[in-house]
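Hello K.,

You asked for the raw outputs rather than the summary table, so here they are, unedited. I folded two proteins back to back in the same session to keep the settings identical. This is the first:
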Amino acid sequence: MTTTASSQPTLRTESWWVRVAVWIVPIVVMVVVWHFITTGLGSIFFPTPATIWDVLRDDYLSGPATRLFLGDVVFDHLVPSLWRFALGWGFAVVSGVLWGLLFGLRPGWRAWVEPLLEFGRAIPPPLVLGIVFVTFGAGDLPKAALIAFGAVWPVLFNTIDGVISVSEVRIAAGRTFGWGRRERITRIIIPDAGSSIFAGVRVSLGIGLILMVLTEFVGAANGLGYTIVRAQRGFDFAAMWAALVVLAVLGLVLNALIVLLEAKLLGWRATSERGLDV
């Protein structure tokens, strides 16, 4: 018993180091490979990691202490992008989960709206960029609406699939315990569909970030997409790659936060993911 108890911290420590290594090692390898390739090429289109870092330091990390050492580009371009993304993606996640629960619980309603849902999912959001901007302008709300339109579908359909896949036995057990509809939804259906919902949320995250940049390519005066286009037109490829690095880091951080939230809310599934210790 003592040996088993003492081994638990070691296992947890090793697991923590493995998780850190899984995140860090591929990035380090990629940077090293990129360094040797770009150093050998000597092309202005593919700057070295050191050159990109200089731009990141000067533009994004050169502010005063009162601004947390963040540069002007962060507040002039990154913050507006994050604001539009938060509006659009947040609306997509909330509405996708709510409508997914509704249609998952109401097969009759789902049968009526399914053709419309499939039609909407089949429309590529970039194709309606021009129509939306001409009709509603190129402000923050139209951009956020396009992000929401493209990011809502994975959340919606994954939520529907998760609700449909809930075991009828578990629902029947809830009725046996005397749980009402609300309790069955909150205690059985949503937790059981949680993994599917979070999978849709993570997919929609990538779509939302892509649309965030695309909507800033046209009719924008700020944002990461605007920064990338301006750098391309000015042949400042180091600044372009720096913006892409910021976008990649943003995606990694947001994805990690979603994974942590999923682990916090669905920690009871950890045993099935790790396997049983028999």
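The second followed immediately with the same parameters:
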Amino acid sequence: MTKNIIAVDNGLSNDTLKIEYVFGNVCNYKCWYCFPGSNEGTHRWPDIELIKRNLGHLIKQYIRYGKKKIQLNIIGGEPTMWPKLGDFAEYFFKEFGCLVSMSTNGSRTLRWWEENAKYFGYIDLSVHHDEAKLNHLIDVADCVYDQNVYLAAKVLMDFKNWDHCITAIETLKTSKRKWYIAAKDIHINGQWFYTPEQKEFLSKPVKRYPEINHFLKNYKIDNTRYSVTFEDGVSQKVPSCYFALNNLNHFKGWECTAGVDWLHISREGDILCTMMQPLYQEEKIYNIYQTDFTEVFNPTIAPVICTKDDCFCNAEITLKKRKIISIVQQT
């Protein structure tokens, strides 16, 4: 029986801010399990000059707050389809020292990766068994690895086609360059449909550890290590999938560091939690595409009190948070 938890810690240093930025929903893949709205092609690419100005202003606000390390993670859609992606990554790396990372299906040509990988500090390679050309992905991963960029290949474990996903993992292992390989769980409308055997496989997500120097490079980039504290005060280290697989992704009423250590920018440009909750303990939602953004965005940076019954975003599930326990004094 799983014990109740009262706190979550990801080990993230207090001077670090993670920004997850959704670049539209244009994608060349149509995976059946993709998060709703992520590949319909209804939201095109942002204006690069507007983003440089407004996102730059946001980053400056957090730097004043004490956030010295800015990790800017791009997701989609498929971000590499944006012609200005290299320009974007180069600008925020050089101007603010951002660690620019990206979740990508790796489908762009090897030439594209040879020209642009150098602007990134971390590549999260999402491997989709039904769409991916595995030999091409191995070439891409090797190319990124050779440019001294940390790469993690994460196979999305489709419970309907489990054996195909296992084959993908084993095929990726044939590369002689030791980059990271992991199995990643998926949910459908907030539910997980894995068998007990599949849950056991996912409970140890790392399927190949990287070569030691590559591992140490990642450790310097992102040394998040997840742990929970139980009601009896005992703490335990856990993998990121621990919460969802044990039905522990319910934090309504908890204090969460969303908006302090991490924020989400939606494909519409809204700055909020992925479950549509406003940040900064305000009712209004700021939008990164506002023409007057540099004038109006000056919030008091503070944790949120969660108002949602369930949390389905892995990044938000694993944020630092604590259960607020009311003490009723009896007289």
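Residues 327-331 have pLDDT under 50 and may be disordered.

Happy to rerun anything if the numbers look odd on your end.

Regards,
P.
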